[in-house]
Specification:
Elements (H helix, E strand, L loop, with lengths): L1 E2 L17 H11 L4 E5 L2 E4 H17 L8 E5 L5 H11 L3 E4 L6 H11 L3 E5 L3 H7 L7 E5 L9 H12 L12 E2 H4 L16 E7 L7 E6 H15 L9 E4 L6 H13 L3 E4 L6 H10 L5 E4 L1 H8 L14 E4 L6 H11 L3 E6 L6 E4 L18 E5 L12 E6 L6 E2 L3 H7 L6 E9 L5 E6 L4 E3 L2 E3 L1 H9 L4 E11 L3 E10 L6 H11 L8 E4 L13 H12 L1
Parallel strand pairs: 2-12, 4-5, 4-6, 5-9, 6-7, 7-8, 11-12, 11-13, 13-14, 14-15, 25-26
Antiparallel strand pairs: 1-17, 2-3, 9-10, 10-19, 15-16, 17-18, 18-20, 20-21, 22-23, 24-25
Helix pairs in contact: 1-2, 2-3, 4-5, 8-9, 11-12
Cofactor: Mg(2+)
EC number: 6.2.1.3
InterPro entries: AMP-bd_C, AMP-bd_C_sf, AMP-binding_CS, AMP-dep_synth/lig_dom, ANL_N_sf, ATP-dep_AMP-bd_enzyme
């Protein structure tokens, strides 16, 4: 077992000063009131304004929403100023946050909202038609609807919202009884009272499939998040200037990695996070970066670094003041790290984490980067690799990576069986990843234990894709696997056994697009006569994958 050193006890790195995540926000409002906090679509709000707006929304949530402390509230929107405002307001009102992928289909929304029992949702109007379709199957009683430009000054707000709705036709028609507009929810007087006791220690429920199966809600407590924030701060502090740095935020804030970095660690440091609503719009992203007076950091993933490095206008961005690039969410390839360094002059610091670990487990230190590894564990974290019987294998041996530390989740929401399967009685979390730990404690991820597919940093579970595909009347059975992709790390390849020859690839693709988020839609579909199975009839995905990987070697 490799045991990390205990956390620093310096006063400003003491997690004990914050009992709840709302205390982190209050700290920032006190120390950085006049500093810029978040910027999006060309408009910036200060920490004082974040304080004001969130206090207004918190007052409405507490007094007029019908929600009570401890209830769950979903946030479903891309990276907009409304996102951090909602996070702070929900924390002040004692609500448990449920981050939701804004690109979810109605089917996916229904599962998450029903499973988590959310009673309120703050949603971008563009997605309200999907909410309308499933809201009667949930416990949602409170709906707050925001438009893309609602936090921008007039007349830009009006013009952009009208353009999105009527010119670009990005807002389908919808009707939800009792829905409240964002402006109405923020129209009252501010109330900065924090709920002293919400009745739960859970701060946020983030959905993940863990290592297998349908999406499960990881319960992250206030203590989990505060400790992980401090762990992240301790290893990144040499590269961060409090109250001065501009950090670009292209990763979606609903993702655990971006949420931790920008909504907690960045706020505690008094930094400015530049929110990018649509990082897939590379031209727009590059235009935003070109207009920034300084860029001190950027947090992204392998596919984004590759796409940016090869953009025709990348040379027009001033990277001279950028001191760090953080990578996580998916494996960083050596060639991409080297190309990014060559183009920007900035080293990529790769780390490793899981939603169940709040998420940060390890990071390459600023003064000793080992490309190809995800660094040593962050302070206060223990790691070890084990065999199939849970025996510690020691250093330099391949085994399943187990993690123990204050950032490990409380458990899966309303799923005690999955919790007990994933966390041992001694507090070790079973990651489901195979790794080696070298003599310096650096972790190298070498394989995944289960069938999880990672597309551009997002988890895709074959069982979910197959369930959707198999619901098509023309499909007898199917198997989904991940295959190497330079663009997305992995791509989904689907093998289908047809009931008859009338079924086409286009039929399968259209069915998937209707029922799955875009990144879960297979990039390649192959019709086969049969699928390899075990003697009890279980489809052998691993055998299919091994055959495919041989073709990519």
């Amino acid at each position: 077992m490799f045991a990390a050193q205990p956390m620093s006890t310096e006063p400003d790195l003491n997690p004990g000063q914050f009992e709840q995540i709302v205390d982190v926000f209050e700290y920032a409002f006190k120390h950085y009131a006049d500093k810029p906090a978040f910027s999006c679509l060309g408009h910036t709000i200060s920490y004082a304004e974040l304080d004001e707006y969130s206090a207004r929304f918190a007052a409405w949530l507490r007094d007029k929403s019908g929600l009570n402390a401890g209830d769950r509230i979903a946030i479903q929107m891309p990276n907009l100023l409304q996102f951090p405002i909602t996070v702070v307001a929900a924390a002040r009102a004692g609500l448990v946050i449920v981050n939701t992928n804004p690109l979810y289909t109605a089917r996916e929304m229904k599962h998450q909202f029903s499973d988590s029992g959310v009673k309120g949702v703050v949603i971008l109007e563009n997605f309200c038609d999907k909410l309308e379709a499933i809201i009667d199957d949930t416990d949602i009683e409170c709906v707050v609807v925001t438009q893309l430009a609602d936090m921008l000054p007039q007349p830009k707000r009006l013009l952009m919202n009208l353009a999105v709705k009527y010119l670009k036709r990005m807002v389908p028609s919808w009707s939800i009884d009792g829905a409240v507009t964002w402006s109405d929810a923020l129209s009252g007087s501010p109330d900065r009272r924090a709920v002293p006791d919400s009745g739960t220690d859970v701060a946020i429920v983030l959905y993940t499939g863990g290592t297998t199966g349908l999406a499960k809600g990881a319960m992250l407590t206030h203590s989990n998040l505060v400790h992980n924030m401090m762990q992240l701060r301790e290893v990144s502090k040499p590269l961060i200037r409090d109250g001065q740095d501009v950090i670009v935020a292209p990763l979606p804030l609903y993702h655990t990695y971006a949420f931790m970095f920008h909504c907690l660690a960045g706020v505690y440091a008094g930094n400015l996070s530049v929110l990018i609503p649509n990082p897939r719009d590379l031209d727009g992203l590059i235009k935003t970066l070109k207009a920034l007076p300084q860029i001190n950091g950027l947090v992204g993933i392998n596919t984004l670094f590759l796409a940016m490095s090869r953009h025709r206008d990348i040379g027009q961005i001033d990277f001279s003041q950028m001191r760090f690039t953080g990578a996580g969410g998916m494996a960083l390839t050596i060639s991409v790290a080297e190309e990014w360094h060559r183009v920007t002059g900035c080293q990529v610091y790769e780390g490793y984490g899981l939603t169940e670990c709040s998420p940060v487990v390890s990071i390459n230190p600023y003064d000793k980067v080992k490309i190809g590894t995800v660094g040593p564990p962050v302070p206060g974290t223990e790691i070890m690799t084990v065999d199939d019987d849970g025996n510690d294998l020691g250093l330099n041996e391949k085994g399943e990576l187990w993690v123990r530390g204050p950032q490990v989740m409380k458990g899966y929401w309303r799923n005690e069986a999955a919790t007990q399967e994933s966390i041992t009685a001694e507090g070790w979390f079973k990651t489901g990843d195979f790794a080696r730990i070298d003599d310096d404690g650096f972790i190298k991820i070498v394989d995944r234990k289960k069938d999880l597919i990672i597309v551009s940093g997002f988890n895709v579970f074959p069982s979910e894709v197959e369930e959707v595909v198999n619901s098509h009347p023309g499909v007898a059975e199917s198997a989904a696997i991940g295959v190497p992709s330079e663009k997305s790390g992995e791509a989904i390849k689907l093998f289908v056994v047809r009931r008859d020859n009338v079924l086409t690839i286009e039929d399968i693709t259209a069915h998937c697009r209707e029922n799955l988020t875009a990144y879960k839609v297979p990039k390649e579909v192959v019709f086969v006569d049969d699928l390899p199975k075990s003697n009890v009839g279980k489809i052998l995905r691993r055998e299919i994958r091994e055959q495919e990987l041989k073709q990519h070697q």
